[in-house]
Design brief:
The chain is α/β, with parallel strands linked by helices. The chain has two domains: 173 residues, NAD(P)-binding Rossmann-like Domain (Rossmann fold, 3-Layer(aba) Sandwich); 174 residues, NAD(P)-binding Rossmann-like Domain (Rossmann fold), CATH 3.40.50.720. It is 36% helix and 17% strand. The strands form two sheets. It has an eight-stranded mixed β-sheet, sandwiched between helices. It has a seven-stranded mixed β-sheet with strand order 9-8-7-10-11-13-12, with helices on both faces. Bound molecules: nicotinamide-adenine-dinucleotide.
Length: 363
Amino acid sequence: MRIGCPKEIKTREYRVGLTPQAAREAVARGHAVMVEAGAGAGAGFPDDAYQAAGCEIADGPERVFAEAELIVKVKEPQAEERKRLSAGQVLFTYLHLAPDPAQTRDLLESGVTAIAYETVTDDAGRLPLLAPMSEVAGRLAPQMGAWALQKANGGRGVLMGGVPGVGPAEVVVLGGGVVGTNAARVAAGMGAEVTVLDLSIDRLRYLDDVYRDLFRTRYASQTASAELIRRADMIVGAVLIPGAAAPRLISRADLAELRPGAVLVDVAIDQGGCFETSRPTTHDDPVYEVDGIVHYCVANMPGAVPRTSTIALGNATLRHVLAIADKGWAEACRDDPNLLAGLNTHAGKLTNYAVGRALGIDV
Ligand code: NAD
């Protein structure tokens, strides 16, 4: 199959759909891979690494979109990319169609077969192509929070690990899922005293079994949350209610109860944020202050580390890329219901119930 990998054009997107290593595996199986010049540069993969892997380098996006039977990307296609898509082509990327009627309309009009990373499942019903980005965001959260805790960046001037004779920072993680667990592990690794709160007893049980030497767990009752956040130096918001906006766990009035200069890292900002005073920020200007409390609310945290993020995403997508290329999308989806769950559009029809419900379109 002819596989195409264009350069991402969304503002400040430095990740790339295929690493040279992934491309090499596809080439070894007899597929032709065309990569747009400069596509991997932002993630530290130069064109000659793709050439060495057996790829053809195309000067611009035109040939990649015109000739590829399978297009592998990272972000949802932008308006000018959507004009280049056609029926019979397979697009494999993050789409997030539910809040995006314009993109959905264009994909349906193009007739493209679009398989969305974010709705591909695994046998346990989890979302394995979202998990790597949650892992990245989770591990980055204490790193960014520690930076924000420095006085010059607006914070309390507290060192995560303390020093002999001076206690460490107190970190509270709200939500002990993929983001929360990774955040807690890294914060504990930096020497902070960490408590994870969750509403799921099963999840707390698992965290306690595996990580009790690293951090504590508490049930996320209002009383426990209120007591812990009052003495926290850093609070990481990592809750998710699937398919819903993030619950508001700290109100503006609550800020007066926090330690002055405490840092709120709202990883759940991409679902609206779990603090009332959160608003999305960018890597260029990541923090702001409300009532003496520092807020870090970057909506695409993995974009800060595009190399790690690209490799992590590529590890998760590769087997599906190879299955689609080897068998064609229809047989690959017939053989693997988890990949079928990723199918969002085909030949002008919407094929995902949740997206259809959100957009009021019959599926
Ligand atoms: P997850 O489903 O693995 O974990 C969410 C956890 O929150 C679950 O364990 C759930 O029981 C718990 N929870 C739900 N409501 C709660 C409450 N009121 N109090 C305490 N715990 C509660 O989800 P995840 O993959 O860890 O993602 C967490 C959030 O991070 C999501 O909103 C996701 O979209 C976001 N995210 C953001 C970025 C970014 O760049 N900002 C990157 C990746 C993920």
